[in-house]
Amino acid sequence: MEGTKKCSREQARADDVYRALQSAVSAICSNDLTDCRLQVETLDCESPIEDMLCLAIMVHLKLSPYGSYGPAGMSLIDFVDWVRDQYEARGSVYFAAPQVNVDRFRMDFLVAYIDSGAARFGIVGVECDGHSFHERTPEQALRDKSKDRDLLSAGIPIIRFTGREIYSDPGACANEALSMAARVAIPLSEAPRRFRPSVAERIGT
């Protein structure tokens, strides 16, 4: 009984945080009529915790004049091209998009960072583990390990958040993901050694 009550309290708090994030994004978007696609009713994510992290990332990016949030379903090549376009058009520094396809995997989010002054570029994949307050099953953990290895071989490190972490403090998770992209940034001259040619060519030009 006590466990049920605790879960109910956690869910109630999560609902409160989610509503607060929705309000924050709505308020930000209402002041930016050129970015009407950011509607909290259609987040293009696949689970409640992804929705919550998506909203938190939106808040971080929209509160900064140097952030851009992209559409769902891009390929890795499309994402890198979009990052370059946003950087050239708006001078954005931080970038994020949900449900990005990388080879045979779909990432919950890709986050990127550009430091033009130091000619550096960073990119990380972000995964949300678990659809409630539960951890991964052993089978899910094995699939995730395989996914992490394949993506790392493509030059993309992965950062993972549990459902509990996201529900407890989605803003901190969003900030950590964006900060990680900056911390792993490499000089553009090293892109051919880190990324496959089709990606390195787009990053380095």
**Dominant shape:** globular
Question: What proportion of the residues form beta strands (DSSP E)?
Answer: 15-25%
Would you identify the regions where 5 or more consecutive residues have pLDDT less than 50? Answer: 30-42
Cα distance, first to last residue? 60 Å
Order of helical and strand elements: HHEHEEEHEHHEHH
Helix percent reads 40-55%
Gyration radius from CA atoms, angstroms: 17 Å
Question: What's the mean pLDDT score?
Answer: 78
Q: What structural category characterises the helix and strand content?
A: alpha/beta
Count all strands and give the number: 6
What count of structural domains?
A: 1
Q: Mind summarizing the main beta sheet? A: 6 strands, mixed
DSSP helix count? 8
What does this structure look like?
The structure is a single chain. The chain has 205 residues and is α/β, with parallel strands linked by helices. The protein has eight helices and six strands. Strands 1, 2, 3, 4, 5 and 6 form a six-stranded mixed β-sheet that branches. Helix 1 runs parallel beside helix 2 and helix 3 packs parallel to helix 8. The chain is globular.
Secondary structure: elements and pairs:
Elements (H helix, E strand, L loop, with lengths): L1 H29 L17 H16 L3 E3 L6 H15 L3 E9 L2 E11 L4 E10 L8 H16 L4 E5 H6 L1 H14 L2 E2 L3 H4 L2 H8 L1
Parallel strand pairs: 1-2, 4-5
Antiparallel strand pairs: 2-3, 3-4, 4-6
Helix pairs in contact: 1-2, 2-6, 3-8
